[in-house]
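seq as requested:
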Amino acid sequence: MRVLQINAVYGQGSTGVIVRDIEQMCEQVGIECHVASPDPKVNKAKHGYRIGNTLDHKFHALLCRIAGKQAYFSRWATRRLLSYMDRIKPDIVHLHNLHSNYVHLNMLLQYLAKKDIRTIITMHDCWYFTGGCFHYTSVRCMKWQNHCSHCVKQRLDTPAYLYDASAKIQSDRIKFLSAIPKLTFVGASEWIAEELSKSRLGNCCNITYIHNGFDLATFQPRNNNLRRQLGLDSSFIILGPASKWLDPINAITLEYFTEHLPDDCVLLLFGSTVRLDGLPSNIRLYGYTRNREELAALYSMADVMVNCSREDTLSSLNLESQACGTPVVTYDATGSNETVDGVCGFAVEVGNHEKLFDSVMTVRSLGRGHFGQLCREFVSKNFEKDTNYGKYISLYKQIENE
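struct tokens:
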């Protein structure tokens, strides 16, 4: 069997690591796995193919902003990709994220339908069944269930400055995806699989879900001196992703926490180098981690990880933190609810900052040690890398024989 995976990145970021992990598992069981990506790192793959070049990607991005349509350009790069596919003749094509300005989606989907190639699409977000947005829950838009138009996120996920092409994009998705005879959608969470079933694509394809897997060898409790380096030896450390906490939609949550945190508590936000004036003394910025090992050390240092994300297909941060023995408190929106069990991690109603705070104080009163082993057991049982990506191998074999 020969499988081709296509993704925006390789070996980095959440989806790039997933692609590499599936590739390695394929090789272990004797499946020949090719990977195509615009990421130069794809050349490190055993069977890697780089799609396009930097100039093409930048030109695609420019046209996307003008025309309001992503994945409608890079025709030359896509023709070369299709020629490559003609040469290797994959039995299965496994699509991941295609929304990074590097491929003409309609050309690719027409090819898959014409060649009658078994196709799997992993939904890491909602892009495949909307008019172009990645998620819609934070703006409470349900147009995707019928007809996208007058997109409320026109200037957000993939900024479109001149035209709103959401109706055309969604119409094309339905037309070209539904033409593929052997198509299976795989949600990275049960939530997103259920969302797809509510869309206009829900009746024209097979739908299932496979949770992302996590490397428990990398994400495990780690002894480190980060507390001392940061001068937080005696503090109760609440770790959080800066991109979520500093989003204007969570301004009230941030204000509530800073006003009510006890004196020994510090909210440590990671993933931002932006200098912000006037931050209260109980908020600290960590910056970006350089690698997964440093990220694991950061999780291990914290007493609790609080994720106020309002839309996530399946929060890797929540699971990585728990794999390191650190409990999680999160909003229960979208797939985040599937990353906690109510024992070692807790989900509260979206936007209820008081309950979010109270749950953190419950963790503080019980202590991190109360949760550590339970957290790791939860992730090991439900999200272990080899187990979950082994389900893709089973899926490959199943659809090959259909």
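The longest strand covers residues 32-37.
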